[in-house]
Amino acid sequence: MLILGGLVGIVVCFFLVAAPLAAAMAQQLGLDLVIPVIGIAFAPLFLASILLITIIHILLVLVLYLIIAAAIAPNVPIDGPLPVPAAGAPAAGWQLTEQFCRGALIGMNACFTAMLTWVLLPWLTQAIPGLGATMLLWSGVLGVAGFAVAVVNLMALNERICANRSYAAVLGWSSWIGAGSTVVNLIGLLFFVISIVASWFGSRLRLVFEWWTGSWVIHGGPLHITPIPTAYNLGNFLLVDPRLNATSPVFLPGVNLQGQIYDLVLGGTATGFTFHETGHTLNVAAFGSWFHLIGAIDENYVSVSFGVYSELLPEGHQRISTRPWFPLWAPPLGPVPGPSNRPPVRGAPTVNGVGAGGGAASVVIPAASTATLAGASATDPDTFPLGVVAPGVTPALGTLWAITARPSGSAAAVATEFAADTTANFDIGGDYLLILAVTDGIELAGGDVARIPTSSPTQLPFVLGDGQLDEFGISVVEARITGPSQVAVGGSITLSAAGSTAGSAGPPVLAGAPALLLAWTASPELTLTPIASPEEIVVQGNVPGTYSVQLTATEQVSGTGVSHVTAVDITVI
Amino acid sequence: MPKICSFDLGLNGLEPDAVGLPTRLEVYAHVQGSCDRVRLTVRQHQGGASIFSAEVSPDSVSPDSNGTCKARFPLPTAIFPCGFELWVEASCVEAGNCFKGEMLPISCKGPPGAGGEDPGDSSPPGGGDESGSNDEWPWPLPPLQFCPLMGRSFTIALLLGLMTLVASVALLAPAGIAAAGVIIAGAFAILGVWLHWCTVSFCNLWGAILWALKRAVTASVLVVLFTASIPVLLLSLTMGIAAGVITAKLRSMRCRLPAHTTPLQELPLW
């Protein structure tokens, strides 16, 4: 059925699109036509006809796309591969329809490439001095190259060839000169240039070349507008949002999704997205520019779904475990009919040697202290994709430590947020929530994308998590003294420890026990007199000079007895 | 008080399957100084999950006569090709105080005339002994020097040939194209010597070719940008396709890929 579709596609494209278009362009350039009979038939066509023929071309692709969309729609799974005919079993009607239309798309694109490559570049560059003449001079060589690319294109009619990783390289690279890919590649080139120019004015940009399919990965730049950072493809150019990290998850506080604000931990990475997006590169190479643009409109504005045909095909090149995919293009690892990507497996991360508490307060430390974060125990069963992009160079797993909730005024920070083993400094007393997210480049350990409703002051800080991440409730003990700093000889002042806190470190170990045990000490030149509340102390000055008053706050609820000591200077005048 | 000691580490691939992937690994540590018991651990990378770990005790595999402790273990699935690098670490746990950890390539069988299957004999990867006294080794340099030299010579010759080809095609100079062909043929002659006399892993050989191709493609693209030469454009695409195919092969074998910035000196070539 694929072959039949391919033949039909070639014939239809030849007579309705490729031959008339080539004839019109050649006529305008003054080139001799390769096949004279076509010239006789279509020589009267000129520039205005090119627009009409292009519209016909787009409509043909659109019709085939819609037929496929209607055929596969009831059969797209929530995740995993689209069903394929079992070995020896006849294909279902919808599968035959998809095959025929896919073949026709391939045939049309191959015909277009064969007929147009020799004339399209000279025609597009004719107004550029020097370049246009050079292209015209070499149009014969381009023609031969175009036929070679068309043959490569037609090989996509064989699904076993499509599944070959070497074929992906040939197809992806050949797309640079195939006429069928030119429109999208020119837009991609324009975006590439804009991104580079923007980087001269401060826009962050990282350029990586994906050698397998011959594609530029433009990580960064200004051409990203979606609320969630993602990536998109323009032929041999892939554009990845600058908010994504190359290999680690990212934490994005305050992301507005469908009217609700989330703290969002995204599992996808720039490196991981490359595999899906290079699947689009193969789509463009096999089915052409118009298919790609129609698919982009369908995905983003019509169906708004990962289940559309133009997304199922490239997803077969990546295979996230929670998305549907079509097993056409070769995945970077494993057999073609093989399983999806296997997400990483959570390890047993610790903070100061204490394991994750599922959101409950699990670690108590004094203020202004540093905690040791150990998160290297997660594993990735298939080491894909990070482990295979550049083994030994990229890590097999990317990690993120982030403080997602903290007391007001805190400037606590993780020392190296993307390192598996690092430290974090907790500056002031109160409750903190620390998360560890681990990704294999595509998926998080525990979930594809973790969405955390943003905390509000009225919410308990330890109920943020949705269970997808390793979470640590951190209670920080802080002794805090407030009050005057001067006292007259023989006079007295009152200092308060009411600002001291241990956070809400879970249920008390001893029922009714106070959260904090407060102890005051001072230099002998000062006299301390307790009053009714242990949170206050009366200080009397006896001798002129500056003396120290110390407060020790010892947390009483976790059983660990963590203390914090602070001191203030009191001047006796 | 524990005595000071040090280790020389090695990692060997044993019992290759039908496609040449080792099904067992052997890790060894040559102990210098005093140490009665060694813990040997193999990880995929530093700090990664342990693939294998064992304490080599006098009751199991004792240090042999030249002070080498070794342990063998099977791989549930043969996925690591010869030359693939794993993290190997050894720590003395009794009567000594030393630790060493490093990334090591899996060394497979020795070449003709190599120093034997026992990796503990500290034969150089290329085979033979370091003095070059092996009767079947005809080269004046010992394998430890000869094999990297051949690898680098092949890589440089290939790059030179490809660069000559790019320049000649840009200038449309048939003589230059012929010269490029001769240089590339010479490179493959060197490759023949390299393959015959040295143990060259799949990863290292194709990594070296990819290294040269990446630079040649970059050079040809620059030429295209400045000359708008269609023949060079087609040549760069052809070389790019070759680089793409090799990249896919290396990834599927989980080999380390040479980056565009990897200097030749850091390319593993033996």
Molecular structure report:
The complex is a heterodimer of chains A (573) and B (270). With 573 residues, chain A is an alpha+beta fold. Chain A contains 13 helices and 25 strands. By secondary structure, chain B is an alpha+beta fold. Helix content of chain B is 38%, strand content 23%. Chain B has a four-stranded antiparallel β-sheet with strand order 4-3-6-7, with no helix packed on it. The radius of gyration of chain B is 22 Å and the shape is elongated. The two termini of chain B are 41 Å apart. About 12% of the residues of chain B have low confidence. At the A-B interface, helix 5, helix 6, helix 8 and helix 13 of A face helix 4 of B.
Task: Please outline the major beta sheet of chain A.
Answer: 5 strands, antiparallel
Oligomer: heterodimer
Radius of gyration of chain B, taken over Cα atoms and rounded to an integer in Å: 22 Å
Strand residue percentage of chain B? 15-25%
Identify the most extensive interface between protein chains: A-B, 41 and 33 residues
Total DSSP helices of chain A:
13
Distance between the termini of chain A: 100 Å
Q: By helix and strand content of chain A, what is the structural category?
A: alpha+beta
Order of helices and strands of chain B: EEEEEEEHHHH
Helix content of chain A: 25-40%
Largest sheet of chain B: 4 strands, antiparallel
β-strand number of chain A: 25
Mean pLDDT of chain B: 78
Give the strand order of the largest sheet of chain B, numbering strands 1, 2, ... along the chain: 4-3-6-7
Assign a percent range to the helix content of chain B: 25-40%
